[in-house]
Amino acid sequence: MFNCNIINLTFKYLSVPIRGNHNRIVFWNGLLDKIRKKLSKWKGELISMAGRAILIRFVISTKPLYLLSLFKVPKIVCSELITIQRQFLRGWGCDKKKLARIKWRTVCNTRECGGLSIKDIEKFNKALLGK
């Protein structure tokens, strides 16, 4: 009617890709890269266990907060976020593989129950979507 062309643009608004498919892993790669950059290797080597737990709680819970409140996270992305959390807590920059001393479910418990109060990404996502 107005003789205008329709353009398919992909752009970001509030760091959320517009016109992207949130069910695809490519949609979440930017978030995963940001989190990996924040939890860099030197921080994993030089910070104590308590400092690493605090960094995990604040980086993992604040970076994806907006995306988690809008979209359901695919299980593969959820497991990747948990893997990043586990590796950083055990000592991110170390060359040798570290063994887990405690079950991850115990680490995700509250402090009163003997955990470190690290959020479980899947449950956190369901809670934000149920707002």
Care to describe what's here?
- With 131 residues, this protein is mainly α.
- The protein is built from seven helices and two strands; from the N terminus they run ββααααααα.
- A hairpin with a 2-residue loop joins β1 and β2.
- α1 (25-38) runs parallel beside α5 and α3 (49-62) runs antiparallel to α5.
- Strands 1-2 form a two-stranded antiparallel ribbon.
- The radius of gyration is 18 Å and the shape is elongated.
Overall residue-averaged pLDDT value = 82
Given helix and strand content, the structural type is mainly alpha
- Write the element-wise H/E pattern from the N-terminal end onward: EEHHHHHHH
Helix content: 40-55%
Number of helices: 7
User: In percent, how much strand structure appears in the residues?
Assistant: under 5%
| Number of structural units classed as domains | 1
What would you call the shape? elongated
